[in-house]
Predict the structure.
Amino acid sequence: MKKIFLLFFLIGSFSIQAQDIPQQVKDVIKARVDEGINPSIVVAYIDGDNVSYFNYGNTTWNDGTPVNEQTVYEIGSISKVFTGILLAEQVINRNIKLNDPIANYLPASVSVPQYKGKSITFTDMATHTSALPRMPDNFTPADPQNPYVDYSVTQLYDFISGYTLTREIGGTYQYSNYAMGLLGHILALQNNSSYEELMVSRIANKLNMKDTRVALTDTIKKHLALGHSGSRQVSNWDIISLAGAGGIRSSASDMVKFLKANMSPSRTSLGKAMSLSHDVHYEKKENNFKMGLGWHYMNDNIIWHNGATGGYTAFTGFVKGTQKGVVVLTNSTSDVNDIGLKLLNPTSNLTMPKKSIAKLLQQEIDANGIEKGIALYDSLKKKNDGNYNFEEGELNRLGYDYLNNEKIAIAIALFKKNVAEFPKASNPYDSLGEAYLKNGDTELAIANYTKSVQLNPANTNGIEALKKMGIDTNTILPEVRLSETVLERYVGTYELTPTFLITITRKDDQLFGQATGQNQFELFPRNETKFYLKIVEASITFSVNNKNETVSLTLHQGGFDQKAKKIK
């Protein structure tokens, strides 16, 4: 099962001097590829008229070809800023207004919910303040490896027609793939086209972006870097009805054209629309959070977005009022945000990755067997010299290497070891359950999938696996509801570091969390003190003293625990 990390990063004030891509960044990219973290990384750094590229790695781990700036990647949610510009163009052309209700632009058969008489507008959709959820509850993909391909326009309409809003429109930021996908659909509908046709005609063709498309054309396939989750090659995602949320594929050279146009809007016919998309359309002054139309802000001067699909991650951004921008693309679920941020902010953290323990173990196992491999793992971890990466994903991806090559006994041994090393993490149990299922051990598969889902109720992969084996998952995950009095005691600000805080807020019977510089996320109760996230595999435990006062929280993620003291 793929694991997605919550992206916590710190950003300070800065200025940038004219430069090429620093050697430190190149060294980190080389290490990430050489140590088996990313199959390839392509970087484009723009400094005025100078564009520097650094391309390293291959289109796939085993027999791929070297990548370059023409190599095509899925850019995921960076598609949302294209959608924001398409919206802005319609506003500039006076076809719609930002404060128009979206209901006016959908078929009469579609019912759009209101909240206390207020309607959802285009601004609400483009700034993630529509009060629509991250994903619709009728999103039940037949193929988890290509989850969006069968989500139809009928389902798109059915969901919103039957949805009841639970909070104020325009008040709270909550990232919504559904809302941005619906927005892209509405814009295409108004132009009697598909989303791809609209995006290509209004943006890609105007900027000569020949490799920026939604569909996998024959030409794009020739230049495509194949997606990977860990060491496993995975399917491409075909996002059709929700294409405006994450369906675009592009290359670094095309994205450079896109960024240059955004940084110099007066030089293109899209200039007014791009400028409007950069304007702040939603702001929370208490935590300095700002949004344009699809674009996010950091520290008032970085305009950015990142993206992730099943086998790719991407980052793009630029410094407002300058000609300095960056594009980073990879065919891996291991994100590249830190690389992009380092180029935009030289003071941000960028660390050299540790050597892959999985890579060393594979050599030992193949030469001397699984028992010797486990022994080597234990001895090196006990030595604790800091040279090797012992994170949860290492044993997990190595186990899948063997599982995919029908060496099931070795895979099971590695997954069992990972469970022993990370007993509080959901993903190792999920992987072990999959291996047992493949081995025909249904009872052990059920036990491990059950444990995985109990640790992470957002594990849809585990839930679907259990259902296929005839298990009623409602008995595993009974709904927990807490009183507003209990929830209120957790509201406050918690300090992970002096510059990195997690703010907990409450709206009726729903808790929300927001980390410094990050999107707000919902928290769901597992019991009175422990809550989980649905957007990533993570949970939070609140610590309460004998006076029923909350003193701290602990973030559990990726097998690690981080404690944050409550400061207000």
In short: The chain has three domains: 23-344, 356-475, 484-566. The CA atoms of residues 58 and 67 lie 5 Å apart. Confidence is low (pLDDT under 50) at residues 1-18.
